[in-house]
Amino acid sequence: MNFVIIEVYLIKGVVEMKSKQIFLGIVLMLFASTSFAQNIPQKISFQGRLLDADTQKPVIAEKSFTFKIRDWIEEHKNIQVNNGLYSVTLGSITPIPLDLFNDWQANMKILVDGKEMAPNIDMVSVPYAFKAGQLDNVYVKDGNVGIGIVNPEYALHVEGASVFRGNIGFVGTHPSSYTVVNDGFRFRYNTNFFGKNYDAMVFEKTDGNAKNPDGGIAFVNRGSDGIQEAAMVIRGYGKVGIGTKEPNSYLHVQSSDINNTNLVKIDFTGGNVGNNDSSSALLRILSNSSYRPLLSLNDKCTFFSNGNIQIYGNESPRVVEVTGKRSVDSNGTFPGIVALSWHNNNNAVSDIHFGKLGRVTFGGNHTDNSYSNILYVCSIN
Fold first, then answer.
1. N or C: which end of the chain has fewer CB within 10 A?
2. Residue 290, pLDDT above cutoff 80
3. What is the mean pLDDT of the chain?
C-alpha cells in the first residue's frame, strides 16, 4: 500500500502546507504540561492522519509506528487508525532526552510497519518548548543542569563568570532564616553586619542540635598527592587554629616544619615613624585581670598585666623576679639570663638581690635591712 502525506504545522499561528509521499494529515506536537516552570514531562503529544496514496481514502487498520529523533527511538505497536486518524504520546515509553534539541537542528523519522517514510519531519516551534528561548544557553542532560556548557557533569555545572544575588545555603540550611533546624553551611551578604551601611560577606556554620556548632569552617590545601592539609580552621566554639584542626587556644599556631625561620612574624616596614605610646605597639596584649599572665615564653619568662616580670619562678612576682642562681663561666660572667663581670674579668658574683627599698646586694641578702647604703657587695672572691 502506498501513501501520500500532507503535513499541517501550527507555527506561531501560521499554517504551512507541504506535500510528501505519505499523507499524515494534521500533525500537532504539543507539550503534555501547560507551563515550562513545572517539571518538563519529556513527552510530546503527536496526532496524524494516514491516507492510502492510491485511493486517497483514509486508512482503517492497526499499524505499528516507530519514531526516531536522532539516537532516540520509540516503537508504538498495534495503534488503531480510525478514518486515517491516529494519536500517540512520544516519550511515554522512553522519555525524550531534553538535550536532543540543544542545537536547534533536530528532525524526526517515522516508520509505518517497518517502512521508513520520507522525507524526515522538521521539529519546529512547539517541540522546542523543551528548550525555551528565554533559557538559551541552559542545558539539561542526565539530570544535570548546565549553564554555559552543553554537557553538564554535575547537578549544577556553570561555565564562565557568574553573579549571585541573594544568599546560598548548603545541606538543608535555609539561606536566610535566623531559625536553624539543620546542620549545614551558608554564605550570605549582610548590608549592616558591622553597623549601619557597614556590610560584610558572612560565612556561617549552622547546627540544629547545639548552641555552638560542633564542627566549624575549614580552609584546606590539597596537592597532587591527594593529602588534605588544614591551613586554617575556625571551630564552632570560637577558637582559631593555623596548622591544626584542634586548636586549644583562641589562636593556636602549630608547625613541625624545622625549616620555618619564624612561627609568627610581625614585620613593620613603616620606617622610623610613630611614637612611644603603647597604643601604637606592634604587639599589644590587654587584660583586665591583675594576676592572670599576659604572655608566657616557654613557661620560663612570664609577663603580667600589672607590669611584673617573672623569670624562672612560680611565686607571686615582684616588679622583676629572677629565681635561681647562675654559675660563673671561665670568663667570670653569668651565662644565661643575666651576665655581669668586673672590669678585670677575674671575678663575678653568683647571687643578686633587688630589694623593695631600692637596694641591690651582690653576694648576700641585705636588701631590706636598715643599712643606708643603696649598693652592697657582701663578698668577692
1. C
2. no
3. 73
